[in-house]
Amino acid sequence: xxxxxxxxxxxxxxxxxxxxxxxxxxxxxxxxxxxxxxxxxxxxxxxxxxxxxxxxxxxxxxxxxxxxxxxxxxxxxxxxxxxxxxxxxxxxxxxxxxxxxxxxxxxxxxxxxxxxxxxxxxxxxxxxxxxxxxxxxxxxxxxxxxxxxxxxxxxxxxxxxxxxxxxxxxxxxxxxxxxxxxxxxxxxxxxxxxxxxxxxxxxxxxxxxxxxxxxxxxxxxxxxxxxxxxxxxxxxxxxxxxxxxxxxxxxxxxxxxxxxxxxxxxxxxxx
Length: 271
Ligand SMILES: NC(=O)c1ccc[n+]([C@@H]2O[C@H](COP(=O)([O-])OP(=O)(O)OC[C@H]3O[C@@H](n4cnc5c(N)ncnc54)[C@H](OP(=O)(O)O)[C@@H]3O)[C@@H](O)[C@H]2O)c1
What we know:
The protein starts with 9 loop residues before the first strand and ends in a 6-residue tail after the last helix. Helices cover 42% and strands 15% of the residues. The chain has helices at residues 20-30, 44-58, 73-82, 110-131, 163-185, 203-207, 216-228, 231-234, 254-265; strands spanning 10-15, 35-41, 63-67, 89-92, 136-141, 190-196, 239-241, 244-246.
């Protein structure tokens, strides 16, 4: 990993950076010359292409990439071990919506692994690094399309798998985990917030049967605002839509947040 950080620059890590919203987030962040943006993808050539497109569009040479399959904790631990230099903002954005139930090589249902556990694993793996760059932030790109969480059946082993239902569950979990992490990371100077990006035509939304009426740049607007505006530092454990804080009923039940956190921790090896 190269590391030519300027002392005043801010470093952003964006997952799902080859996707519709993640690439737009990365590009908007790179428009500031003192921003360093690290795109995480799982396909080397497409991720490198995204970096080249963004450098061409913005002129910012401090854009680079790393490769990781985020559905696998080992890849996330390797990424964090490999990381050099500071990190100021972690943007958890990658997600999938397969139409049939799939599992990772470790036997974990794929939406739960990618959309939920990866956010959990990344936040845990990078919290030490973030804590050296405080104030620092973590953003969970979630959705208003959320609900049906069953902590007793996170992997759809008992219930019939349906990609819409599994997706809604995963995005409810993201909103709850952001609130759970906010409590834990507050004392380290790290804020953790969640947001709905926008309704954007993408592989993910097409799999769910939605078209999406907003552009990727519109979808990136609230995430980028939370990643850069002082609001995203001052607030923690909150949920936002269209740059507005929205009361999130999913975060009211503290025991449920703790139960979900504990359930995710059970999938997590310390090393
Ligand atoms: N689109 C919408 O209308 C909408 C609405 C509400 C919320 N959101 C949220 O916005 C976020 C981005 O969605 P999007 O619409 O931009 O989706 P997208 O275009 O399908 O992009 C998804 C991204 O996640 C990456 N990814 C998936 N599995 C991965 C894995 N195992 N390891 C590493 N990367 C992986 C994909 O990589 P590949 O390119 O290699 O597949 C891609 O870069 C998601 O969190 C989604 O829930 C989207």
